[in-house]
């Protein structure tokens, strides 16, 4: 808190204010906004009479609720000053400033700040006759808004620059204008000087040229009866026109009114008719897939619900995600199980694969053959029993 303000507060507390008559609020200075949309306006006000110190309130009109709304004040709070007050950074509109002093005296002034109109430039751009000629131009027909006089600065391709209002003998390309008015307000705009490209400019014509900017009356309206389409590899398609012509030339060098095509990959076809009328079609080709797999099985193999019992190559055809044929080939090897019978005659017992057999009969064991398939072996076993006998010998005695 500075020394004056301390003394001022003490004087308020110890000594009552003495009125110097009716208080008056005066506009000492003001400045309009320099450029459209800027906020560099200001209003400087000061008071006289009354208590000699004042509080100032800056207000704008709130049309929604129909009252003057405070947007600034000086000094802040309920303080007072003897000095003149400046309200800066103002936009273009009307303001009300209300001044009051500690004795209840008040006065009001209204000040409207303006701004220049927005700068607008109206031009005529002339394209070049071709990409090879520098005969384009940009002519500024009129400029409105801002504060005249204006200065002009142009920049363009290959280091082009000019301070003239209008520029001539231009090559095709992009040019930038920087215009400065008397208040130093800047307006910028980019212009394109095109090169004239003759051709058919009607987008509904069959020979429409999207690059053309000058219609040369060449538009024609034949159409292929086929739109761009997608086929599967191996399929055929007939290309023909919706209107007859006296001559035809296809990209395949055929000269008939229609052609049959069966491209193996995505292809582009065009046709040229009388009067050089042109149309084209793109055919996308989805390739066919071929897949092989091998399998070795014993005796038989089931594939898609069918039982195969002999070696060979077998084929199934499916639809892939593009609805085209997908051929799958099975290379199948069938190995077979075998059965063997052995006949054995043994006395009393016989041991086979670790088992002891003591009676005649047919027995079996299951093995794997060299191909990994079942090998069933039957044992036809005959057991003959041994016979025990006693021999008695009598000896004669003389």
Shape: elongated
| Head-to-tail CA distance between termini | 173 Å
Mean pLDDT: 90
Number of domains: 5
Put simply, the count of helices is 1
Helix share of residues? under 10%
Strand order of the biggest β-sheet: 4-3-6-7
| Main pleated sheet | 4 strands, antiparallel
- What portion of the residues fall into strands of 2 or more residues? over 45%
Identify the CATH architecture of the largest domain.
Sandwich
Radius of gyration (CA) equals 54 Å
Structural class: mainly beta
Highest CATH level, the class of the largest domain? Mainly Beta
Summarize this structure briefly.
With 398 residues, this protein is mostly beta strands. The protein is 3% helix and 50% strand.
Write structural notes for this entry.
There is one protein chain. By secondary structure, the protein is mainly β. It has 5 domains: 90 residues, Immunoglobulin-like, CATH 2.60.40; 74 residues, Immunoglobulins (Immunoglobulin-like, Sandwich); 73 residues, Sandwich (Immunoglobulin-like), CATH 2.60.40; 47 residues, no CATH class; 47 residues, no CATH class. The strands form 11 sheets. The chain has a 4-stranded antiparallel β-sheet with strand order 4-3-6-7, with no helix packed on it. Strands 11-10-13-14 form a 4-stranded antiparallel β-sheet, with no helix packed on it. Strands 17-22-21-19 form a 4-stranded mixed β-sheet, with no helix packed on it. β31 and β32 form a beta hairpin. The termini are far apart. The N terminus is likely disordered.
């Amino acid at each position: 808190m500075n020394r004056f303000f301390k003394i001022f507060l003490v004087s308020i507390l110890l000594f009552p204010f003495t009125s110097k008559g009716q208080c008056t609020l005066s506009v000492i200075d003001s400045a309009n906004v320099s450029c459209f949309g800027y906020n560099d306006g200001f209003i400087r006000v000061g008071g006289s009479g009354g208590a000699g110190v004042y509080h100032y309130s800056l207000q704008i009109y709130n049309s929604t609720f129909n009252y003057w709304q405070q947007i600034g004040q000086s000094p802040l709070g309920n303080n007072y000053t003897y000095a003149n007050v400046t309200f800066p950074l103002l936009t273009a509109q009307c303001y009300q400033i209300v001044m009051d002093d500690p004795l209840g005296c008040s006065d009001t002034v209204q000040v409207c700040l303006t701004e220049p109109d927005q700068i607008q430039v109206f031009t005529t751009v002339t394209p070049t006759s071709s990409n090879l000629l520098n005969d384009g131009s940009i002519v500024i027909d009129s400029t409105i808004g801002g504060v005249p006089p204006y200065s002009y600065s142009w920049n363009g391709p290959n280091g082009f620059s000019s301070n003239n209002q209008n520029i001539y003998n231009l090559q095709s390309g992009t040019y930038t204008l920087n215009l400065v008015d008397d208040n130093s307000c800047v307006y910028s705009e980019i212009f394109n000087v095109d090169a004239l490209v003759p051709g058919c400019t009607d987008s509904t014509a069959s020979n429409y040229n999207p690059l053309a900017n000058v219609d040369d009356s060449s538009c024609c309206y034949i159409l292929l009866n086929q739109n761009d389409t997608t086929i599967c590899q191996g399929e055929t398609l007939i290309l023909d026109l919706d209107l007859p012509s006296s001559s035809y030339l296809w990209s395949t060098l055929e000269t008939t009114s229609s052609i049959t095509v069966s491209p193996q990959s995505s292809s582009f076809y065009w046709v040229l008719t009388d009067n050089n009328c042109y149309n084209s079609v793109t055919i996308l080709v989805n390739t066919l897939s071929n897949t092989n797999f091998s399998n070795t099985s014993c005796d038989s193999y089931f594939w898609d619900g069918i039982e195969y019992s002999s070696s060979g190559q077998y084929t199934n055809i499916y639809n892939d995600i593009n609805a085209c044929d997908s051929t799958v080939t099975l290379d199948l090897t069938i190995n077979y199980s075998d059965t063997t019978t052995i006949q054995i005659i043994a006395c009393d017992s016989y041991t086979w694969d670790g088992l002891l057999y003591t009676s005649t009969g047919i027995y079996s064991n299951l093995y794997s053959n060299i191909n990994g398939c079942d090998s069933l072996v039957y044992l036809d076993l005959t057991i003959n029993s041994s016979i025990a006998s006693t021999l008695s010998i009598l000896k004669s005695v003389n």
